[in-house]
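>> received
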Amino acid sequence: MKSITFSADDKLIEAAWERARTEQTTLNKPAAGWRIMCGRNNKPDPP
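>> returned
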Protein backbone atom coordinates (compact mmCIF):
# COMPACT_ATOMS: atom_id res chain seq x y z
CA MET A 1 0.00 0.00 0.00
CA LYS A 2 1.24 3.50 -0.82
CA SER A 3 0.76 6.65 1.21
CA ILE A 4 -0.79 9.78 -0.24
CA THR A 5 -0.99 13.30 1.12
CA PHE A 6 -3.87 15.74 0.73
CA SER A 7 -3.90 19.47 1.26
CA ALA A 8 -7.04 21.14 2.57
CA ASP A 9 -8.12 24.22 4.47
CA ASP A 10 -7.56 23.85 8.23
CA LYS A 11 -11.23 24.54 8.97
CA LEU A 12 -12.35 21.80 6.57
CA ILE A 13 -9.95 19.31 8.12
CA GLU A 14 -11.15 20.15 11.63
CA ALA A 15 -14.79 19.82 10.53
CA ALA A 16 -14.01 16.43 9.00
CA TRP A 17 -12.30 15.26 12.21
CA GLU A 18 -15.27 16.45 14.27
CA ARG A 19 -17.68 14.53 12.06
CA ALA A 20 -15.49 11.43 12.31
CA ARG A 21 -15.46 11.73 16.11
CA THR A 22 -19.25 12.14 16.15
CA GLU A 23 -19.63 9.04 13.97
CA GLN A 24 -17.00 7.20 16.06
CA THR A 25 -14.75 6.54 13.09
CA THR A 26 -11.65 7.99 11.46
CA LEU A 27 -11.03 9.85 8.24
CA ASN A 28 -9.49 6.70 6.75
CA LYS A 29 -12.84 5.02 6.09
CA PRO A 30 -14.39 7.76 3.91
CA ALA A 31 -11.02 8.31 2.22
CA ALA A 32 -10.89 4.61 1.33
CA GLY A 33 -14.33 4.89 -0.27
CA TRP A 34 -13.20 7.91 -2.25
CA ARG A 35 -10.08 6.08 -3.50
CA ILE A 36 -12.16 3.09 -4.58
CA MET A 37 -14.65 5.32 -6.40
CA CYS A 38 -11.87 7.18 -8.21
CA GLY A 39 -10.30 3.88 -9.21
CA ARG A 40 -13.61 2.83 -10.74
CA ASN A 41 -13.94 5.99 -12.83
CA ASN A 42 -16.39 7.55 -10.35
CA LYS A 43 -18.93 4.76 -10.67
CA PRO A 44 -20.61 4.26 -7.26
CA ASP A 45 -21.22 0.78 -5.93
CA PRO A 46 -24.56 -0.67 -7.02
CA PRO A 47 -27.32 -0.59 -4.37
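>> Residues 35 and 42 are 9 Å apart (CA to CA).
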